[in-house]
Amino acid sequence: MYGLQDWAAVQRVYKQTHSKRETAKVLGISRNTVKKLLELTDEPAYSRTIYPSCLDEYKEFIIQWRCKPYEFNGTRIFRELKKKGYTGSIGPVYRFLQRVDEDVGLISSKATVRIETPPGDQAQFDWSEYSMVVGNRERKVYCFAMILAASRKKAVCFSLKVDAAAIYEAIQELFDDLGGVTLELLIDNPKALVIENHPKSEDEIRYNPQALMMARHLGTELNACPCYWPRKKGKIESPFHYLEEQFVKGNTFATMEELNRRGKAFVNGWCDEVHGTTKRIPNQHYLLEEKSSLLPLPKTHYRIRNLQQRIISPDSYISIDGNKYSVPVKYVGKTLWFRITYGFRIEIYDRKKNRLLTWEASARKHDVQTDPDHYEEIATPVSTSIPQIRRDFTSRFSNGQRYLEAAGRKFDQPTHHARKIMLLGDLYDDPMLDRFIGYSIELDKMDITSFKEILRQYNAGTLSLPECDPQGTVESARGMDGHDDAPSLTRDCSYYEANVMAEVSG
After folding, report:
1. Which of 22, 189, 307, 440 fits as disulfide partner to 337, beta carbons 3.0 to 4.6 Å?
2. Under DSSP, is residue 326 helix (H, G, I), strand (E, B) or coil?
């Protein structure tokens, strides 16, 4: 019984030799066998060979997925097999697929010739749509991706929109992430990029004028795939399923900015793994051979929409779509410009069109987003609230509580002096101030004027700071002459209480 493999081999060799004798000689079989196989009018039915391996129970699936209407490639078949429980490696799958392809003798209508491009020549761009949980709700998110055809280094960004502005912005951002621009950008045929592309026509491809202007701004040239033939840019088509399986599924994100940050980090880590086709690490391949071949990035991004302007409110907010977002206080009363990209990212610019900061657009209405750092120039460095002063003073200084208790026996407002001491934090670090606080308690010179005089004498070299004992208290307080300058406390709590009672009774 002759199998499909025997029949296919005879057919193939005979077409080349046109001789039964030569065919028999090449294949190492008899001329009678060659004759019988050539006389067969129908292809023998495919019969699978039984191999004692973990792949055996999955071979029928492999044959099914390899043939029409599926025509899956090896990587996709391997992924589907893993879903069905296959625990082996991808090697046996590819070896079996080779036998299937040889036996069946088919050339898929989807078959393409793999073309390897020189470094710096080509990047491929496309996007895919995912359903993702962002901000505790499910949202439709678009993933823009770009891959350098030579090194296979990839970059991604995520958007809530897929309009022309988002597409142009994504192309530029991804080139930024890749560190340069290629001579050619291979694209699909969305209206934002291509107006007409008839594969059977002799006419030139009609590109969107805005897309051409963006390409000139970048220094690249657009090259649209033939319509209905996205496999020409297969290098960029294949990563989307991997992203979905390995990154999108099972993950949630607090914000779109977090999604972009984690997505970019994931793809960069992916580029540190050996590529299945090139057998090289994309990041290394890129650094060694492709980065130097890229064109320099333009200093600015091409925009199809004018920036909008707003006058900053007295409380340092910019109002956008009914919501308020803080900006640094130095811009109060001034005009700033802004734009919204990807449907969520608010970019704010100064009068010279330099980008100052970004905000993520709020999904709520009448929302107020505040960054405390924007008010640092006018922020009170030390609280004026008495309870907060006490909390801050005792938390910052180990002698803080002891100071407040001792000062409370002398002054009506010990927190007044404590706050003034904390304001000295611009000149002295907290450990140094803490030692002076302990020193001032021993000297009974806790008012801010006397405290500053101690600091002045110390800085002038006329006063030495005493050492602390193991419990953190000052052992002695002596001037440069060696005499004891530390008087005893003259007022206790009873004095303070008596004065308060006298004021109340009076």
Report:
1. 307
2. strand
CB atoms within 10 A of CB 55: 18
Residue 291 contacts residue 306 (beta carbons within 8 Å): no
Start-to-end CA distance of the chain, whole Å, equals 125
Residues 6+ apart with CB under 8 A from 277: 114, 152
Average pLDDT over residues 129-139: 93
Cα–Cα–Cα angle for 163, 168, 172, rounded to 5 degrees: 145
Alpha helices in 40-89 (DSSP H): 59-66, 74-83
Q: 51-55, 451-455, 498-502 — which is least confidently predicted?
A: 498-502
| Strand stretches in 225-322, DSSP E | 252-253, 308-311, 317-320
Question: Confidence band (pLDDT; 50, 70, 90) for 43?
Answer: low
> 260 φ, ψ to 5°?
-65, -40
Contact yes or no for 168/304 (Cβ under 8 A)? yes
Read off the amino acid at residue 362: S
Q: Kind of pairing, strands 122-134 and 137-148?
A: antiparallel
> Could you tell me whether strands 323-326 and 317-320 are parallel, antiparallel, or unpaired per DSSP bridges?
antiparallel
Q: Which residue has 């500053």 as its token pair?
A: 452
User: One fold for both 122-293 and 308-375?
Assistant: no
User: Helix or strand or coil: residue 347?
Assistant: strand
308-375 maps to CATH 2.30.30: yes
Q: How many residues does the chain have?
A: 506
Q: Which pair of structure tokens corresponds to residue 300? A: 């600015």
Query: Do the Cβ atoms of 251 and 257 come closer than 8 Å?
Result: no
Residues of the chain above pLDDT 70, percent: 81
Q: Dihedral, CA atoms, 383, 385, 389, 395, nearest 10 degrees?
A: -80
Residues in CB range of 430: below 8 A, 6 or more apart? 396, 397
- CATH assignment of 122-293, among 3.30.720.210, 3.30.420.40, 3.40.50.1110, 3.30.420.10: 3.30.420.10
Return d(Cα 345, Cα 339) in angstroms, integer.
8
Query: Are 7 and 43 spatial neighbours (Cβ–Cβ below 8 Å)?
Result: yes
Provide the sign of the torsion angle of the four alpha carbons 444, 447, 453, 458, taken in this order. Answer: positive
* Residues 310, 336 contacting (CB under 8 angstroms): yes
Strands 335-341, 345-349: pairing is antiparallel
In the chain, % of residues over pLDDT 90: 53
Domain boundaries, the chain: 4-104, 122-293, 308-375, 386-501
Report helix, strand or coil for 141: strand
Q: Exposure of 92 by Cβ count < 10 A (0-12 exposed, 13-18 middle, 19+ buried)?
A: middle
Q: How confident is the model at residue 108 (pLDDT cuts 50, 70, 90)?
A: very low
Q: How far is CA 179 from the centre of its chain?
A: 15
Q: Which of 412, 407, 385, 384 shows the shortest CA–CA distance to 502? A: 412
